[in-house]
Task: inverse folding
């Protein structure tokens, strides 16, 4: 009787202290009936480029106020400060056409051929407003960015260099992890007095281009 009483009192204390070994039958009962043979599968992360620089070329149409629309081409270099903000340095080239006065007057030329050469240089700050995705099919999706951009620079036209402001918006589609295509619309503002009284010329640019991250 005494041994039984000691056993009843000592066993809970022993289990609480973790000193008692489980009985062989109990250890077998604690084992799962089926032990799954699970082998960890290594996961390979997508090799997405993390470069901050982007270089590209573009082509489009530039409406030079009073001097017709012209083919526009150029290039740009972009530095991404973060996922939202970026700096862009751009250069573009076009050629001014004839004014309405020149067409009506016949042999009268307001500008020489060399003065019709149009080029601009600017530095802009951009902001990605709506990052998202574009779905080509159910199986293909591309990362996209709708952005706003504005800045300042200079325009060489009509024999003079003019301080220029520009502002616009663009849409970027990432075709791969390092190549993207852009669609953009911008307005260029500068003062000009070639046709008489000085005024602010508003030139509209519509362009598309391809760029590469590096």
Result:
């Amino acid at each position: 009787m005494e041994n039984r009483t000691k056993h009843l009192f000592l066993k809970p204390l022993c289990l609480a202290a973790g000193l008692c070994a489980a009985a062989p039958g109990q250890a077998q009962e604690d084992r799962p009936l089926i032990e799954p043979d699970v082998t960890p599968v290594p996961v390979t992360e997508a090799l997405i480029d993390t470069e901050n620089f982007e270089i590209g070329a573009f082509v489009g149409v530039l409406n030079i106020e009073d001097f017709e629309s012209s083919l526009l081409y150029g290039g740009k270099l972009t530095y991404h400060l973060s996922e939202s903000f970026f700096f862009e340095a751009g250069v573009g080239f076009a050629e001014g056409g004839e004014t309405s006065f020149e067409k009506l007057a016949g042999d009268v030329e307001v500008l020489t051929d060399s003065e019709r050469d149009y080029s601009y240089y600017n530095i802009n700050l951009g902001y990605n407003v709506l990052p998202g995705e574009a779905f080509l099919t159910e199986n293909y999706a591309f990362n996209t960015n709708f952005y706003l951009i504005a800045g300042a620079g200079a325009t060489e036209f009509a024999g003079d260099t003019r301080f220029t402001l520009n502002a616009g918006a663009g849409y970027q589609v990432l075709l791969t992890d390092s190549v993207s295509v852009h669609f953009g619309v911008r307005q260029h503002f500068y003062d000009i007095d070639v046709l008489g009284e000085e005024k602010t010329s508003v030139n509209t640019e519509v362009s598309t281009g391809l760029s590469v991250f590096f």
Summary: Residues 28 and 34 are 12 Å apart (CA to CA). The chain has one domain: 53-213.
